[in-house]
Each structure stands twice: as C-alpha cells, then as structure tokens.
Structures
1.
Amino acid sequence: MARALSQTGNLWLADTLWKLGAIEFGDFTLGRTAVHSPVHVNLRLLISKPAALQRAARVIRDKVATLQRMLNPQVAPFQRVAGVPFGGLHLATAYSLTAKVPLIYIRPQHADGVRIEGLHERGQTVLIVDDLVTGGHSILDTAQRLREEGLQVKDAVVLVDRQQGGRQALRKAGINLTSLLTLQVILNYLMSSGKITEESYQRSLAYLETHRPP
C-alpha cells in the first residue's frame, strides 16, 4: 500500500503517456511474458516529448538519491549507469546527463562477443535503467552480461512495472527493482479521470490478476 501511495506523485507520467498515445487497449503480445495483454504501454514514445523525458530523468535521480539516504539504504552506491537497449538507453542517457553519472551500455550482437561501450573498470557497481519491466528478461540479460565482464549489479530502475513477475525474478538474481509507476496505478488513474471505459479497466485488471505472480 505504501509503495502504491508513493507512486501517485508520478501520475504526471501516466497523463503524459496518455496524451502521447502511448497507452493502447486491444490484444497485444509483448515478448515472452505479456501474451494477449489487453493493454500496451509504449514508453519509447517518451522521446517525442523532451521535457517529459528530462523530467523523468530528474525524478529518477531524486528518487534514487532519497532511497540511498535512508537509514537503511534501499539502493546501493554505484559508479556507472547502464541503459538496456533500446528502450532504456534513451532514458539512461537522460539520467546520466541529469545525475552526472557516466553511462555504459552493451552493444547488441557484436561480432566479437559482448562489448561494453563506455569507460568502466572491473569491480564497479552499475545501476541498470530501463523503461519498463514485465518478466524481467531484458534486465536479467543485461545484468548477466555486465557481471560476466566483472561488473556488479545490485539495483535496477524502471518507469513502469507491469507487475508480471519481473520484480520477483530480479530479486532472485540479487537485483532490487525500483519503479516510478505500476501498471495498476496507471489504470486506476485513467479510470478515475474518465479517460478509459469501465470495460477496458476491468478487463485489464482481470488480466493483471490472472498473470500476477504468486
């Protein structure tokens, strides 16, 4: 409940995504986890609104800093930020510029195997940034490759958690997940503000409940 309440301050992001046409309702298969989903959140459209992308980066910066200052810190110290190609790379770049933290990323399908772009040293801790998490596969793959290169991964940050097992999968891999919004909070906002129909709302909630991890 506390996490849900804390996310209501980020409803500007839900409103921005709605105005961008980034939230759609229908029948979508989105990778390995979200099959026949009645709702799709296309966070890549955020790059079409630079002010919103910049604001998202500032919110992530402030949230991470707050979690690090807690009596029992919720985010470990880190020396690099890594964007997950390609959805998280734009967001990670914006965060890097805002927080003044050096950026690295894994070059996809490099002929010589894994190649990390950006200066880094073995033993450094990396914060992974992505736009959205569903089952956690993209973040886990990025974390594995970074770890294989001698880097440490303890935390990941996303704008939206679709609540379909990603948080639990990351926890099993020793990665703590921080999200600005959950899909349910977005749906609640859209319904309460009269932007979607009761049918779309209830169908999406039923899907989430069916696919929510035990």
2.
Amino acid sequence: MQTRSLKTLVWIAKVGSFAKAAEQLNMTLSAVSMQMKALESELGAALFDRSVRPPRLTPMGRAIVEQATELLQREQSLLEICRAGEALVGQFRIGFVTTAAVRLLPGFLDQAQRRAPGASFALETGLSKALQAKVLSGQLDAAIVTDADGLPDKLSAIVLREDPFVFAAHASLTGAGLVGLMRDHRFFHFMPDTGIGKLIAGEMSRHKPGWRSDPVVLDNLEAIMECVSTGLGFTLLPAPDVARYRTEDVVVLPSPNPLRRRLVLAVARGSVTTRHAQALAGLLQQAAAI
C-alpha cells in the first residue's frame, strides 16, 4: 500500500470534500475519486457513503483516517531522521575513560538534553585501551579517552581539552618543597598501566634517584586524594582532578616539566559516526567548560 492515497484520504477528511482536496492537492477530481476507489478495493471496505453529496466518511472510513494520520506522522518522523545530516539523531553508544567521567558526564548529559533532543545515549566507563578496542570492534560508536600512547591508525581523534599535571601534598609535608617531598615521603601513584598512569610514570622517572621507590599504587583518584589530604604522602595528577577532591590543607605544587593530559574523542575512521564527530565533540567541549 502506498502512502500517497492515505495522504489524499486524510486531506479529504480535513477539507470535507473531494473537490476541495483535488484543488488543494493539485489533482483532478476524477484522479482523487479513482484513488479513493482503488484504496477501498485494496482495503476491502467502504470508506465513503456515496449516497449523499458530497460523499461522507463511513464509521470505517473515520477509523482508517485516524490510523492513517498516525502512520503518516511516523513516516514524517522517519524522513526527518534520514534528512538530519550532521545533527545528532538516534542512539549513540559512548564510552568515557573513568577518570574523566565524573567531570564530563553530568555536563555532557545536560548539554545533550538541551542541544540534541533527538539523540539518546548508551554510556559506559572504562580504561582508555579497553574503550579504544570497543570503538574499533564496533561495540561503541565513540569514546572519550586519554591518548598518552597515541591512538591506533584506524581511529581518528578530536582534542577536547588539555589538563596540566600538578603535585599535591598536605601543607605539613611541603616545608622542604618538591625535593623534600620526593626524598622523605610516600608517593601515591595512579595505576601505571593506564593513560594517566603512564604519563605519571614517565614524569616520575625523570626524578630518579631523588624519590622513594616504594609508591602506593591505587586505581581510584578520590582514594589517592583522601590519603594526600590526611598527610600520608603526595601525588601527581591532572589539575582538575586535584581541584575536585582537594581540601583546604592540601598544597598544589606545579610540575617542573610541562606535563599535560589530553582528552580526545575517538571514532573509527570511515564509520558512520565520523560525520557526527564534530557535533559530539561540541557537546563534550561545552561540558568540559562548565
């Protein structure tokens, strides 16, 4: 069944006569009449009572008009989805590296609700390497990751933000500065096999043998900052993460080297998601700025 005849039927119901519908649809009266007879034949039901002039809808005809109206509205919605182009419409599967999710997710969802109402998002968190693998395999459409080791050639990336690293320690431990911290106090190290962890490990290797080599390795930024706030040692983390969990007794010391963590939006090259990458990145960049 073609929707053209249903559109004509709905228009007849709207204007009240075959003649007015023919005029407004730029059709001849005979073409409208033939189209309605063909529709009645296809449905096996009388849609119009032709014993009166102009013909009027039967109870069955009114029921068909009601159903046809809903069907045509859904057809229009499908067409709008297909015409959306670069707009974010449909469901997107997005991964967030765990260390950034706490800062970006709330703002991202807020921006998406206001700026991309036609889109929905299935979200998950994980480590950068695992998320990159899921994008490559098609399990995720895109992922926000740390590109400490660079990205595989089959992934493209848009930089979302760059965060400097800073040292953090309780004020009572900082009398002798960074040199004293490294010499006398325990270092709390975020997982060395993660994107952030590798950057931290590379920076700390610059300071050997000037720092104690018995770091406490943890996989939770909040736990690390809690230990630092209690005066149990010091850490090196991206500045926004330190700021989020910092207490008033914690002192921040800049890194002597310009170490930065880059967060990027990674998508598979040549995938359908590529055309939506800039729109997704825009939402994420707005979220990062909140």
3.
Amino acid sequence: MNIGNLPKVAGTLTQNRPMDSLSWLKTGGPAEVLFQPAHMADLAKFLKALPAEIPVLPIGVCSNLIIRDGGINGVVIRLGREFNGFEQMANGNIRVGASLLGAHAARKAADLGVDMAFLRTIPGSIGGAIKMNAGCYGNYLADVFVSATAVTRAGKTITLRPDDMGFSYRHSDVADDTIITQCVLCGPAANPDEILAKMENALLHRAETQPVKDRSCGSTFRNPAGFSSTGKADDVHDLKAWKVIDDAGLRGEKLGGAQMSAMHPNFLVNTGNATSKDLEDLGELVRKKVYENSGITLEWEIRRVGKY
C-alpha cells in the first residue's frame, strides 16, 4: 500500500510503523500504515474516502492485545490526546474521550463525587474498556454506560445506546472496525474521600494477588463458566480460569521468554525477551493442557491480531 495514494488527512499517517513500542507487551511487527487522526471529522473523512478493501484496526494502548510478529496489514488507527477529554455534563453524567485511560477517568470522577472506582485497577483506555465490557470486583462498563459516539468503517458518525451494545461477559457487539471516539457514563454519587479509599484498597489488593510489576495484559483467558449474559458472576457455578490452569500444573510454565505467572497463573508475562509467538504459543499450550486435564476449553480474553 502506497501511503501517497491514501486520503489526505489533518492528522498523521506513518508507513511501516513499528508496533512493539506501542504494545503493552512490547512485542509485535509493524503496522502497514498507522493513522493518528487530528479530530473526529478527520477520522470520519478518512474512513469515508479509504477504499473498502483496505482493512482497518483501531487500537488503544494495547493492554489487551498481542500484535503478532509479522505485523498488521492495512491501516491501524490510534486515537491520541485530542480524544482524551473529560467533563461533567449538566445532568451529572460524565463525558469521556475514548483515549483517556480508565484509571485516570476513575480518579477524575472521584474528585467529582462519582463512583467509578472499579476502573482504577483496569489497564487500558476507555474505548477499549467499552469494546470488551471491562470490569472487576463485580462491576462492569455496562453498569455505567449511557451512550457512545463512534465512527463506522464507512465513515459514518453514529450514537450507540445500551440496546445497541450487546454487552455480555467481556464482550460487546461493537464491530472490530468501528472506532469509539467518546462516551457518556453515569456512576453512583458518593463521598470523594470514600471513593479514593476504595480505589487505594483495590490497588493494594491487586498488588497482593497479581503480578502488577510484570509485563502482562492481565487475565489471559476468560473464566470458563458461571457467568450470566449480563456479565455477573454466578456464585453457585463460578469457575475461575486461574484455578483450572493451576490444577493442570501450569503455574509458572515457561516457553521462550513467555511465562504463566507464578503469582497468578492466568497472567501471561513477557519476562523480558519474549516474542509474540512465544506468548501466543504458550497460551495455546495452556489451552491444550487444560483441556487434557479437565475437559475445559479456555477462551482467550486477550485479542491476537496480525500476521504470524
């Protein structure tokens, strides 16, 4: 693809952009083209003019993504600081730009007395959190979601309501080539000091139970059973991915520079020199051995994109 033949933009187009420096795991090959739009009109105009046969992949900070070593065909779209706004609306709801980190949104909301504390410990941006209905400790993005503004692959700007989202456990129905640019959220009112204390306690608990200093994307596999269509845990049938991995003897398992964390065996870690192939191959090995041990087929929570 010749970058000179692509639609003109107000933002930035970069050909053969290395993606390892943008990847949370610090692995992966180059994007054929990286597009960083200047604003929403720039994004919509570009997508409308871009030939339909050219694939598009939106990314955030890649906190739930393995970019394969062969790189990514087509156009990768990454929203920058122009899309990280945060404001409280007249009705008390919060308007958040898609590129703002969830942790930052949680802190800003707390200052306003709005409790979205569950976002504090979830890595990644708000756009990605919406796409995968991110959540922890029994709270999910779906619980606070009011609406989102997005641009489709055809360059049309649309508004998404809860009924459009198809939220379920770690999932939404938003198309992979639709780019969420901002959203409106509504959290419960609470005392700012109490929200801050809740977030600090969550961070302490996370540090005690998860390898927060290691390079990982958090939970590698979805919990295999015990969740309703709304994404809520069923206390009777709850089954954790880490437990079936541990039961298969895979805590601390290594392959090349990749490892299933000894602290939390559902965390896939780059120990320092892993390739994307190491990471994905270790994940597939875990899936195989868990199935052999328990008959359970684990489903990836981390997305894998690009060429091998």
4.
Amino acid sequence: MATLLPLVRGTLTPNRSLADLTWLRVGGPADWLFQPADEADLVAFLAGLDPATPVFPMGVGSNLIVRDGGLRAVVIRLGRGFNSIDTAGEKVTAGAAALDAHVARKAADAGLDLTFLRTIPGSIGGAVRMNAGCYGSYVADHLIDVRMILRDGTAVTVPAADLHLQYRQSDVPDGAVIVAATFRANQGRPLDLKAKMDDQIARRDASQPTKDRSAGSTFRNPVGHSSTGRADDTHELKAWKVIDDAGMRGAKIGGAQMSPMHSNFLINTGGATAADLENLGEEVRKRVFQNAGITLVWEIMRVGEPAAE
C-alpha cells in the first residue's frame, strides 16, 4: 500500500495506534496516520490519493471512541500548520487545529466574545462539525464560513448556511477536511470576558468530572432543540436525568463507568477497552428505553472495527 500513497512533506505513519490520541485512551491502529505540513501538502495528498481509500479527519480525539480493532483508513490529523488564530474587527479566523479554549481566550484579549468556546473540549474543526455549544450559544450563532479541502483535493470556502448546522450535527461532506473557520463575535471588555470565562470554568468543574478520562457528554439530550441548534430550556429533557431515572449513575462494565458525579459522562477508570466503553453506553441506552421509552442518541463518535475474536 505504501507505494500507492502520494509523496508528502508532512509525516505519514503506518499502522499507527490511535489510543494515545484520544481523550479516553482506547482504540486500535489506523492503517495510516497523515499529519500534513501545511494546506498545500494536504491538497496534494488528497488529490493524489486513490479515491477508493477511506479518509477519516481526526481532531484531538475529545469526542471519539476508536474501537479496539482500529480503523481501516488514512486518518488525517492537523497540527501546528493549522492552529493560527487571527482577529480583525468583529471577526475571528481560527485554524481547525486551534483548541476551542485558546480561541476563546485570544478572542477575549481582542475584546471579542466567543466565551462559549472556553469550556468546550477539542479543536475548532470538531466544534464546527458538531455545531458545538454551551451556556445558550452554539457555533451556528457565530459561524460565517468554513475553509475545507474536499476528498478530491479541491479547496473550497463554504458559507455557514450551506452546512445546515443543527443540534450536534452538520452537513460537512464525507472525507472533507476542515482547515479553518471564521466567526463573527460581539464586542466586550477583555476583563469582563475573562471574568465570564472564569465563572464558566468554575461552574463546569463543580458539576462535571473534569479530572477523569472522559469524552464529554456521552448522549445528546433527547428533545427540546430547534433546527438552529439552540436549546429550548423550557422543554429540554436532560440525558443525565433519564440515565439517573434508569438507575445507571455509576454503572460499570470492566474499566468503564458512568460517572457518579455526572451520569452522562462515560469515563475510563483505568484499563477500559473501547468495547467496555461502548458496551456500557449501549446498556445505558437499553435501560433508558426500558424505563422511559426514550432512545438515547450517542454524542460521542464511534469509529473503526471491534477487536478480532
């Protein structure tokens, strides 16, 4: 297969374990891991890659379970060439590899309010793809456009409206790699914005298991979200509440546990396999359906193949 892959200036690694690249620290190897040097390197690679070869763009693995058998694909992970953060007027343009928290802080330094990003784990590429949000604000509320490289190597700039952002989802084309996003932000005093972020961090740390190995919220809240991605707090049903009602707070399978602190957080207590984590999640879904007739939808992305028997 090596002879069929295009030459690159970045790093191309065969049979690369993905476990250490995910927050849950589980998962098997990818056939290849490609870390492009810059956008031109990524464009050339995708343009020259056999169209039949699967491609999986990966951020920092904050919302991901890679199954124990690994991923039969070329995993593309962006690094330093894709983490710039620039401000101009009311606009913030961030590379897809820039961490959400860093974007929030740099925007605040420039007097621009993207504070909702401060407590969202992960990077900008994933935030756009999942229409991430919290504290009543979502990517959809601020996004202007996205620059991406399509699977055939074509570079395009896509208006936010064309992504059809909804609650925890978007219409990013299969195999496309987001490389940058531009946001519009309201102005504010840097000190006020910093205080707002400090308050958000304190609230998060008081209610979520931030010191444990998790991937953030495990399941989407069942109902109460408009097509824009905003939550309707007057009708919203919380995933943690239906999990509690089903008696699954603190439930365990192997090294996997539903956090006793916040029951919609699936955690690796140490030594969990991807199968432990996914099986526990599926058991939660089963119990919630039996108890309340509600089918929980995974918010964590699960990819790859199970381990061979």
